[in-house]
Amino acid sequence: MEQFALKGIFFCDVDGTLLPYGNKRLSDEVIELIHQITELGYLVCISSGRPYLSLQELFQEVKEEVIFSCCNGSALFYKGKPLVDEVFLKRSVLEGVYEDCLARDCLAIIATSERIYLSLQQDTPLRKKHYENRSYAQSIADPAQVGQDAHQITVCCNGNLEEVLPYFKKTWSDEAHIAVSGNSMFDLSASNKGIALQRVATHFSLPLAQTFAFGDSENDLSMLRLAGKAFVMEQSSEALKNEITDHCRDVGETIRSIVFA
């Protein structure tokens, strides 16, 4: 399929899109849909702010069928191998953002292809909920302990996002792509989902008109703007729904309407 007969690619955000908020596992319907449309000549690109290790875990049943666009497009994997070259944050950015997180009582989550590193100084509910028992997660007291190049740093705020975000955008927007990715967090990434969409389409020699994107948050905007057809989830912000005028209640239902039109 990589060389011929590719009909289109669906670029799907995960949290709030393929995976409703509060759910911990994909529905059987989503898994079956991925199996079905892959056999019909389409690909699904899982486009998430999550790192590769987390996505592999969540999409275990279809990990050989989908493309993974991880850390907001900073790393792209297909069938267990990099699809194109990965991109990374500068070490100086990693160190500076880490120190800025400490100074503002924020948890820093540093994502690489091999591990996830969490700043030891903050003990937050997010740490316990998502990372406490993960074999690939490691708490660190110093960014020098990060053993690989980093794709992304997620800043988890302690009730102070509106105060903290403008500072990070002013200080680091020339060095990283910055976008809100949750109610109390934002990502500083080496790429963005729109750049990743373009790289995937180019790799498969697929016209942008044959790309479809689904998302619900600010970090999805770059791919929603670039895709041949874009949909935002109904629970998205009014600002997002005003810009992207096609809205979606159920991703699977919308994909089926496209594939079987």
UniProtKB/TrEMBL annotation:
Xref: InterPro entries: HAD-like_sf, HAD-SF_hydro_IIB, HAD_sf
Top-level taxon of origin: Bacteria
GO CC, alphabetical: cytosol
MF terms (GO), sorted A to Z: magnesium ion binding; phosphatase activity
Pfam family membership, one: Hydrolase_3
Keywords, alphabetical: Hydrolase
Name this polypeptide is given: HAD-superfamily hydrolase, subfamily IIB
Originating species: Sphaerochaeta pleomorpha (strain ATCC BAA-1885 / DSM 22778 / Grapes)
